[in-house]
Write a structure and sequence with these properties.
Blueprint (H helix, E strand, L loop, with lengths): L18 H17 L3 E2 L5 E3 H8 L4 H6 L1 E4 L5 E4 L4 H10 L9 E9 L11 E10 L5 H16 L6 E6 L3 H17 L6 H7 L15 H5 L10 H16 L5 E2 L11 E8 L8 E7 L3 H4 L7 E7 H9 L13 E5 L5 H14 L5 E3 L6 H10 L4 E5 L1 H6 L1 E6 L7 E4 L3 H7 L13
Parallel strand pairs: 1-5, 7-8, 12-13, 12-14
Antiparallel strand pairs: 2-4, 3-4, 5-6, 6-11, 7-9, 9-10, 10-11, 14-15, 15-16
Helix pairs in contact: 1-5, 5-9
The structure holds adenosine-5'-triphosphate and magnesium ion (MG).
Length: 434
């Protein structure tokens, strides 16, 4: 008995009709990153589980609940990457590149987290992220945020807001940690199970809780500012000055701690109120201790990750943006089977002569009317028609599919010139005209 097999919950297909928006988003972001001097790095999707455990943190949601972890055939514990930073750090150390002087990197690819799927929250999702190594900031901290703002502008994305915080140096974090433990212990009876669990291991994570019942308690919790070291204060202030000078608006959110353990000093999120609880579109921060933690030389680092599903959801609502379509320009109708041979040859010649065009030849036969309907549905602006009469005369019919212009007939040898010189298709003119 045949059985329909479905995709895994929370893992989506991206269908051809959705791809023009994805391509627009990907190419716009990557272009901007290249404009700022970033270079791509690709790392494997599978890594040793310990890599994520030791970087993201043993008590974080990602490590305790969300990782796709399994034993491979050799009994080795592997995990499908839930984020990109740890792999990047590993790759740099392993390849001796930590101290290279060109360490502004970007990556793109699927990430995996076993979360409860909902709008903007998937189990396989995609991030474009950047990591910068070797620069202590605050200049680079400000620049990566300014670069984000440029990306939103290039995408015509509005309505997202920037939230900033600083987590200080490790000593300040430790001090803050103790104050939080004291505060939350005094209010122990109000904590949920998750927070009780975190209380002594990682109390800052309680601030990150999404439980609405804890909102009040969290709002009154002690703030980082009082524990902050002077250097981190200066770092934060200088970064804000650069942002101010560049017209970047932001809000300081003292409760922004981010869900991963490795951050220090600058943390930030770009948030929206249009995706329900899934508010963060882009998140990042500084992680100065991570390279050293993995056995590399002391090297500061900073980065961010953009969630593409959330971004495309937001952009889908915006009818103003002009997304380049991916239809063919020309559809070649082969009105008689005896013309197939010549039509294929003609199509190849045309592809040689006009390498920019998107030319789709009709395959699979069928009568003229059916083929012409397909040509129209393909979204092409022109139909080329090769029937018995044209075959005999070595000519071809050109018919606009988007205007009322009369069909014209040209010889095979004139075809490419006619298309190019008369601006018959989109890549030679913004409007097809015949
Ligand atoms: P959240 O608080 O929404 O769970 P996070 O803090 O876990 O987000 P990060 O680890 O900072 O997210 O990842 C960076 C970005 O990747 C997020 O801002 C978001 O846009 C996206 N992202 C994270 N998890 C998911 C997911 N499960 N599905 C879709 N996008 C996600
Ligand atoms: Mg999360």
């Amino acid at each position: 008995m045949s059985q329909q097999i479905k995709a895994i919950r929370g893992m989506h297909d991206t269908l051809p009709d959705e791809m023009p928006l994805w391509h627009f988003v990907e190419s716009t972001i990557i272009q901007t990153l290249h404009n700022y001097g970033y270079r791509e790095i690709r790392t494997p999707i599978l890594e040793k589980t310990e890599l994520f455990k030791h970087s993201i943190g043993e008590t974080t949601d990602i490590v305790t609940k969300e990782m796709y972890t399994f034993e491979d055939r050799n009994g080795e514990l592997l995990t499908m990457r839930p984020e990109g930073t740890a792999s990047c750090v590993r790759a740099l150390i392993e390849n001796g590149l930590v101290q290279s002087n060109h360490n502004r990197l970007w990556y793109y690819g699927p990430m995996f987290r076993h979360e409860r799927p909902q709008k903007g929250r998937l189990r396989q999702f995609h991030q474009i992220g950047i990591e910068v190594f070797g620069i202590p900031g605050p200049d680079i901290d400000a620049e990566i945020i300014i670069m984000c703002a440029r990306i939103w502008k290039a995408l015509s994305l509005d309505g997202i807001k920037l939230e900033l915080n600083t987590l200080g140096n490790p000593q300040a974090r430790q001090d803050y940690r103790e104050r939080l433990i004291e505060y939350f212990s005094d209010n122990r009876d109000q904590l949920d199970d998750d927070s009780l669990n975190r209380l002594n291991k990682n109390p800052m994570r309680i601030l990150d809780s999404k439980n609405p019942d804890l909102k009040k308690l969290i709002e009154s919790a002690p703030q980082m500012a009082e524990s902050l070291d002077d250097e981190s204060k200066d770092h934060f202030a200088t970064m804000q000055t650069i942002l101010d000078t560049n017209g970047i608006k932001y809000q300081i959110n003292p409760r922004l701690v981010r869900g991963l353990d490795y951050y220090n000093r600058t943390v930030f999120e770009w948030v929206t109120d249009r995706l329900g609880a899934q508010s963060a579109v882009c998140a990042g921060g500084r992680y100065d201790g991570m390279v050293e933690h993995f056995g590399g030389p002391v090297t500061p680092g900073i980065g961010f990750g953009i969630g593409l599903e959330r971004l495309t959801l937001l952009l889908q609502e915006n009818e103003q943006i002009d997304i380049p379509q991916e239809n063919p320009d020309i559809y070649l109708v082969i009105a008689t089977d005896e013309a197939i041979d010549a039509a294929m040859k003609l199509a190849e010649t045309l592809r040689d002569q006009l390498p920019e065009i998107r030319l789709m030849t009709h395959c699979g036969g069928g009568n003229f009317k059916k083929q012409f309907k397909k040509a129209d549905k393909s979204g092409a602006s022109l139909a080329l028609i090769l029937g018995s009469k044209e075959l005999e005369n070595q000519t071809i019919g050109i018919k606009s599919l988007r205007t009322d212009a009369e069909q014209i007939e040209v010889s095979w040898t004139e075809l490419a010139d006619k298309i190019r010189n008369n601006n018959l298709i989109g890549c030679y003119s913004s409007k097809a005209r015949l």
